[in-house]
């Protein structure tokens, strides 16, 4: 059974490794082109490409999967199944219909809940009790295909987006292998998604991490956890010279029952307790603009933030 794997993000690495070691014939990896990284803009390959080269797997890196030349290169492999996870391009119908048996996707949510790119962050930010990996048939609609199987996990009460990402990466390979075996032996089922239960989790930008202190502390606690490490959460403060500066906020944060004017620092005893639309949020780890990440005691030594200071103001 000849398989082509299509993936770029690190969440796909464990699944790719298992496929390399499996009884299936992994004939090629399709991944995104190398990209410039860092201040020096060094051209850097995806980690999955490096692994593929180490294992002697052919690598394709088309700029656009819609280009006919890219499609013909892929068609030449005459694959039975395409496995897609965190690839980073929308696949045209010509690609979806190319493999003999199926084109399947490993998606990091319990579809139809949280279709789209920020499914992991959204599951935490919205307070979901569970999430998981869904293996589905791909269609031209975004994450709308029939479900083959789901593997569900409980979200930890203190779990961050990064931690959940890594945990889902580790359960995805077995879900993938189970689905592949079912497809090969003909036992795979197809469950249509219920459209009324669907929602969309769009790609996140850094700007989406700006904290709105009028939200409740309970909502913001989940947001800080879910958006760590990407896109991160931040507010603004006024430094000792009267300049507005950005202040990144990191978990863990804690909900307190104290109330006050939204965005106001209520206490600096165990961290900075910031009044929210309901209750307050205790922050203990920050990164002021132009500085490094630090514990709150070090930040408070600068004297810019004291009880009564307003965060997130104009």
Alpha carbon gyration radius: 23 Å
* Sequence of strands across the biggest β-sheet: 5-2-1-6-7-8-9
Succession of helices and strands? EHEEEHEHEHEHEEHHEEEEEEEEH
What about the largest sheet?
Answer: 7 strands, mixed
Compact description:
The chain is α+β, with helices and mostly antiparallel strands and 314 residues long. The protein has helices spanning 13-21, 47-54, 68-75, 93-96, 119-125, 161-185, 217-226, 296-300; strands spanning 2-7, 25-30, 35-37, 42-44, 58-60, 81-85, 102-107, 130-137, 147-154, 233-238, 244-249, 253-256, 265-267, 272-275, 280-283, 285-288, 294-295.
Walk me through the topology.
Elements: E1 2-7, H1 13-21, E2 25-30, E3 35-37, E4 42-44, H2 47-54, E5 58-60, H3 68-75, E6 81-85, H4 93-96, E7 102-107, H5 119-125, E8 130-137, E9 147-154, H6 161-185, H7 217-226, E10 233-238, E11 244-249, E12 253-256, E13 265-267, E14 272-275, E15 280-283, E16 285-288, E17 294-295, H8 296-300
Parallel strand pairs: 1-2, 1-6, 2-5, 6-7
Antiparallel strand pairs: 3-4, 7-8, 8-9, 10-11, 11-16, 12-15, 13-14, 14-15, 16-17
Helix pairs in contact: 1-6, 5-7
């Amino acid at each position: 059974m000849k398989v082509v794997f299509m993936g770029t993000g690190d969440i796909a690495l464990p699944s790719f490794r298992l496929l390399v070691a499996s009884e299936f014939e992994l004939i090629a990896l399709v991944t995104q082109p190398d990209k410039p990284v860092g201040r020096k803009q060094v051209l850097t390959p995806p980690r999955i490409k490096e692994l593929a080269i180490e294992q002697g797997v052919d690598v394709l890196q088309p700029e656009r999967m819609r280009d006919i030349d890219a499609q013909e290169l892929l068609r030449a492999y005459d694959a039975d199944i395409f496995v897609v996870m965190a690839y980073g391009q929308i696949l045209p119908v010509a690609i979806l219909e190319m493999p003999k048996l199926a084109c399947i996707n490993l998606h990091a949510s319990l579809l139809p809940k949280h279709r789209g790119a920020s499914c992991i962050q959204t599951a935490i930010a919205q307070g979901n009790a569970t999430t998981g990996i869904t293996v589905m048939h791909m269609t031209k609609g975004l994450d709308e295909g029939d479900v083959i199987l789901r593997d569900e996990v409980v979200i930890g009460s203190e779990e961050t987006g990064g931690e959940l990402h890594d945990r889902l990466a580790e359960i995805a390979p077995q879900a993938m292998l189970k689905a592949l075996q079912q497809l090969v032996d003909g036992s795979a089922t197809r469950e249509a998604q219920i459209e009324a239960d669907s929602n969309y989790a769009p790609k996140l930008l850094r700007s989406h991490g700006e904290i709105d202190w009028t939200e409740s502390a309970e909502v913001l606690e989940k947001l800080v956890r879910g958006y760590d490490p990407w896109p991160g959460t931040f507010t603004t403060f006024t430094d000792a010279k009267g300049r507005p500066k950005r202040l990144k906020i990191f978990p863990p944060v804690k909900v307190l029952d104290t109330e006050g004017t939204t965005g106001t620092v209520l206490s600096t005893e165990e961290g900075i307790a910031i009044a929210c639309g309901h209750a307050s949020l205790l922050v203990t780890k920050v990164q002021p603009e132009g500085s490094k990440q630090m514990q709150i005691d070090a930040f408070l030594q600068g004297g810019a933030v004291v009880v009564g200071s307003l965060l997130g103001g104009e």
